[in-house]
Each structure stands twice: as structure tokens, then as C-alpha cells.
């Protein structure tokens, strides 16, 4: 029996003066970044924009989310990518994950 994927969602602000830069970066995400996400069991990853708010959603299909997140964090290509994307972002939600720009948000409802 295959277990259902874990649904994860996050929110962050985009700096108004960096909005177009951020959107341009995501119009052509580096293949190595995408490959690492897939290798680390991330599926159906989407980022939405509404004004200066970014909302991300993905499904995790692995067995150890924390270990896979560490693998992504240790990846040199992902680290380089973040040197471009992080300056575009600003935390806008309560800090639930210490030090993270993107903060997790709770699922309220799901039509399964």
C-alpha cells in the first residue's frame, strides 16, 4: 500500500523592488535545482504570487523529510540558487521555523 504524500505549504514576502527579478529567476529555474528537488522526493511543487506575497506548495513522497531537506540544503547548486532568490524575499509570517524566510502554514481544508 502506498501512503498519501505529505502536503506542505509555506509563505514569504517578496521585496517590491526585487519582485520582477524573482519572477524572472523562476521563469527559468536552474535544471540542477529542479533535479535535486525531485531526487529529494518533492513533487507537484508550485509557487504562487499575489501582490508581494509568495505562497509555495509541494507534496513530499519520501520517508524522511528532515533528511531530504538537509540534502537539499547541502547541495552546492541549491546554495548558489539561494544567493539569487533569498535577497528577493522577506519573512512576513510568525517565525515558526527559526531563521527561515519561508514559514510553514497550516492546512485548513483539503478535498481528497
UniProtKB/TrEMBL annotation:
A single Pfam family it belongs to is: rhaM
Supply the InterPro entries for this chain: Dimeric_a/b-barrel, Rham/fucose_mutarotase
Protein name (Swiss-Prot/TrEMBL): L-rhamnose mutarotase
